[in-house]
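re: ur question from the group chat, yeah i did fold both. here u go
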Amino acid sequence: MDKISPQGYRRIATEEGWITKELMDRYQALLERGDHGDPGFQSLWGFFGRSPSQRARDLLERIQDMDARRIADMDATGIDMQLLMLTSPGVQMFQPDEAVALAASSNDQLAETIARYPTRFSGLAAFAPNAPEAAAQEIERGVKKLGLKGALVNSHTQGKYMDDAFYWPIFEACEALDVPLYIHPNTPSPQMVEPFLSRCLDAAIYGFAAETGLHVMRLIVSGLFDRYPRLKIVLGHLGEGLPFWLSRMDFMHAGIVRAGRSPGALPLQRKPSDYLRENFYYTTSGMAWEPAITFVQQQMGFDRVMYAMDYPYQYVAEEVQAMDALPLTPEQKKMFFQTNAERIFRL
């Protein structure tokens, strides 16, 4: 049995980024060639991958380190376990055959890391969305053979969203395996990103939430959760803003459907907010702010909100102490830091 920390709960951080050297080398090659066609990728990794600034250098080192430095950072902030996920855009910059191979390689390396530090790390399987059948097989391999705890997609794949039936094998696999799919942000797609770039709004400051919130709304309105009612989705950053729109999205969607305004918005079996309350779970990554956390816990349920740091993008030692001080009962605090994550990800 794992040792319980003095505060009475283990602190499990549930959205913590990493990347293989293999994949980072490919990112660097894409940046060098400049022919990838994705301005958001250029903005994000052109900075973190190539800038001489201290922030970029620190992140580039931390995100590739799966040993001493990462463990030391966890110990310094009181984090007992990280749930690791392949950082954005993962393998999704690449064509299907290469993406499938890179996903398998990264999952193998992740499983090796977890085997070295089984009490400190767990993780989610990467996959290639642009090869859905192979993606479903890789998710199954990751869960059944490698012991990974679900799957991760970095939102859109080269501007394509997963509300299309093309991607259904991925959702079928997650539902059949009864594992969660974590939808992590990507920079806005090439057709969306231009107004964000000139003010550097394309990444975590706003673009991530705008892009991922759009993706989730497309999934809900498509009827995906009527087709796969047991599907479990996890969102970071307290739901990318969507919990604050529950009333308005219900009202407006009902009006659109009644008016027959669009063939892309058909009747659903439940209200949009119902899916967000019943099929979704939420982490606090990058949102260590008590008023927002309290709101999402009250609206979505204390059993659906989990702690995450968003390491190494947002490595702030003081936030762990702030989260320890949240106005929660001892039972609710243990749910927040430990038992929700253990239940949802089967840790």
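okk and heres the other one u asked abt
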Amino acid sequence: MKVILSRKGFDSQYGGQPSPILPNGTLLSLPIPQAEDILKFSELTYNNKTYADIIKELNGKTRQINNDTKAHLDPDLRKDVYAKRNPNWRPIFGQAAAAQGHLRNQNVKVNDIFLFFGWFKQTEIYNGKLRYKINSPDLHIIFGYLQIGEIFSDGDKFPEYAMGHPHCDKMHENLKSNCIYVAKDRLSFNETLSGANTLNYNKNLVLTKDGMTKGKWELPDFFRDLKISYHTENSFKNGYFKSADKGQEFVISPSENLTLWTKDLIERN
């Protein structure tokens, strides 16, 4: 089983602010804005509040997001964030063009597992509104997972239940290597857990090493023996791992230690 660390959600270019670690521990990954998509930030909700309102509470000066801004909801892991779901909805991740070419070249297949990570920051309620905690660090955190059950790509007919996903929309029809990865119903290594889900905040989900900038990670020692796409042995510095600044998916070669590490992350959170 290969593991793919997949960078998703708001970044400094798209969105321009961290996704929030909510006071209850929810890792609410904010999907990037994309003008050609269908869903609006004002149509996505968490705990009876729209994503547009959450973003504005956290950053009242944002110029990127308003009620009419379109959101690229991918990976789509939270069923309840959108009210008008297909009754047969399933968690899906989509990819296309060069990034999908990378996954294809790395032979990503059924039963491999995506671990989605992004830029997060702690938040708190202050005077009745959500705000970023003062002096809290910017962190790369794993916020969700998806184990691949089916792959549809390169002209395959997408299943009816997937038609609400952005990569099944007409805007993506002509993109080279457009592909969707549909989650398994249940994890292969723990059938009591869904094949895809979000995770709640826990220190063991934080990739960033304490006291360092978010792209400098603390990984278990066994990672030194593994191949990680977009990285070399020189990525391991004195005391930390320097993650690549570019690249959406980092594919990690299979190992027993990697499987146990991944299983522990998911089962504990």
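fwiw on the second one: The mean pLDDT is 95. Residues 256-268 form the longest helix (13 residues). idk if thats what u expected
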